[in-house]
Amino acid sequence: MSNLCLIPAKASSTRLKKKNLQFLGEHSLLGHVILKAQKSGLFDEICVSTESDEVAEVARQYGASVPFLRPSELSVDPATLVDVILHALECYRGNGQFFKSITMLLPTTPLISIDDIKEGMRLFESSGYRTVMSVTEYEHAIYNAWTVSESKEGNVLEPCFPDSPFKYTKSTECPVAYRANGGILVTNPRELMLKKTYRSKPIAPYVMPLERSIDIDTDFDFSLAEFFFSRASHDWL
User: Fold this and answer.
1) Which pLDDT does position 236 carry in this prediction?
2) Which one of 86, 142, 150, 180 is separated from 67 by 20 to 30 angstroms, measured CA to CA?
């Protein structure tokens, strides 16, 4: 049994067209993540899951494996990341291939480092947890969040967490909260296939700084990634 790196890279993105093929420096977002997976030296198989012949060709040019094209319905809502993983595992199982771990790397988080990938795998292997998920600290205290509700008088603000003891607390005195940043997910394939989720507890956190946690979904996100990419004092690859 071996380690699989799975890179989902659909072509049908809506808010930023063909975002996985957008160039950041000398390489496309897809190219960045493939090269980092290769240079980590951790994976026996680096697979790109896509519905697009164009994306598949780019992936192969970078040396990734594209042993199948996923059905188009797995590239649009309401399909989830779990659906994409399960489809890939079923395809490999049909060929008699099984894996002891599966690592998800997204082209839309191109600023993660090779060391991040290595550390995520090290944590997965040493912790004995079912899943390792990369996270980053929220920029603002989530306990102070508000939601907009409708009333007879018009829209009104209501606390998002009305039962929280921190709902009116200064942000500097609230507990630290983290968000999944889409950078790295390492999980147990057998567990995922049984439970149809990678959120089976316990989940180990791999905490990353904001500047390596940009998840590109819009033009603004891409501009932010370009800013951090251009100002880095090290080689992203």
Assistant:
1) 62
2) 180
